[in-house]
Design brief:
This protein has 301 residues and is α/β, with parallel strands linked by helices. Helix content is 44%, strand content 14%. The chain has an 8-stranded parallel barrel, surrounded by 9 helices. Helix 2 (27-40) packs parallel to helix 3 (57-69), helix 2 (27-40) crosses helix 11 (266-283) and helix 9 (237-253) runs antiparallel to helix 11 (266-283). The termini are close together.
Length: 301
Amino acid sequence: MLVSMKKMLSDAQKGRYALPAFDVSNYDMAKSVLEACEEERSPALLMCLGVDLAGRDMEHLSSMIISMSEHFDIPVCLHLDHATDFNEIKRAIDCGFSSVMYDGSVSDFEKNAENTAKVTSYAHSQGISVEAELGHVGNGAVGSISETGSDTDPGETLTVPKEVAEFVKITDVDALAVAIGTAHGVYKKTPRLRIDRLDEITSVCDRPLVLHGGSGTPDDQMQDAIKHGITKINIYSDVVGAMNKGLKDKLNSMENPATWPFLVFEDARRMMKEVAKNKLRIFGSAGKIYDHKKENVYLRE
């Protein structure tokens, strides 16, 4: 059974560690992450993105992960990542997602807050936790980011601390993604996180904070961000990169094109597990398993 992300992040906030949240696109990615979390005794936070949820794929992927979660003795959260449409969020909740993210970060403050509040009201009525984003984490490769964007990534806008408390009050979100210098995708330059900005945010916000764009961000910077209040860090490129490298190397070495898929994916699964385990250890969630049955945090019995 799945659990709410709220319990996971509350524990991380109290324990001053972070949960790596892994976007997974297929069975092999989900299996690798779940096995890594179980072996490292960490809660598992799996996410799905819209590109993998078109048509009936939302039902297919969510039902598969929900079924898989029942066979692992760890708390598992299934989170909808970067949703921008209210109907898509309602559909995900109907499909069994235990947490959702509404991403209104490209809108102005008022519209973002208004839409987020609508999502939160509905999701909370269904027992579902909600993440939102204030500021905007851009796409593509960046270096260090300026206050309102830069030539390297004009889509990046850092979170404004004075807006945070008002946003949380209006929306009642369970977790808030903030922009402090990361970006989605693969970096061409090493990012420089604005820990000073993060400190300003934590001083006015009591909700767990989320860092998007964790892949490729140096470990020491992420550990520093965790010390200063980050409780969830999104990971995709590092895991899918490991999968694709494992597949490429295996396929290039094969002489028999009719090899069993289990063997074709063998190295890819091992490499993804290594990446996932490394994140669990670096972020501090390894060994932080809690008794999800005793805590009675199941959403649906």
